[in-house]
Amino acid sequence: MNKLLSAITLLTTLSVTPSLAQAAVLYKVSDAQVQRCGSSHGLWTNRDISGNRCHNNYFSIDGMLTINNDSANQNDWTATLKATAMNLNNLEATIDLTFKDFLETSNHYVKEGGARYSKNDDAASAYNANNLAAPGSSDIDFFSSIMGTITIGNDVYEIDKYKLPHTFQFGLGANAKNKNVFGASTWIQQTNGAADRTTRMTSDHWDLNLNLTAVPEPGSLALFGMALIGFVTLRRKPQQSPLSILQNTNQR
User: I need a surface site. Which of 20, 115, 137, 215 has the fewest CB within 10 A?
Assistant: First the structure.
């Protein structure tokens, strides 16, 4: 009975709390649900792809955002976005971006169709000041630097700055499109010193508008599976009847 209770306790604990050894927070990225040119999008390339025909510049996205927050020092926290996106002409974009310089608050939040944000309210919240923005909380957090590439066809675009003063923002309503959806957004640019053999943006900036769906950490899934197997085994283990227990006692 004690083993059964222990298994149930372990299953319950794993189902409601993150792993203590968690090294990263994983989110599946998908399109922010806003209709432009008949389709929602995750990447908008302004007018860089075949002029201003909007169906060329709105890309549907699929991939993973990984937030590395295992360090006790928030200044060391980073995030990576690895994804692919495709427009209605089946032109594919490969996105490989890294975000650094984590901020709990910002003076440069962009609302548009997203949630209202108050830096003062954010800073006054004990939870928001000490935790990473997560589904179920009102917290919105930021990364203030960016580097990486977006490759579209044969063109490699080096991404190394935001459209100032904006940053990468993530949290409830932070995708700038849906106030009740946990997501992220940013406005990206290049410096004048883009690397050789890369393509120059001709537009002022591009956008990322993302919905984020939490993905369980692989280690937690493995532990949960082991606990579940143990629970099922205990449930299937045959129980001795009172008569058999009495017979075993008499044989000793």
Answer: 20
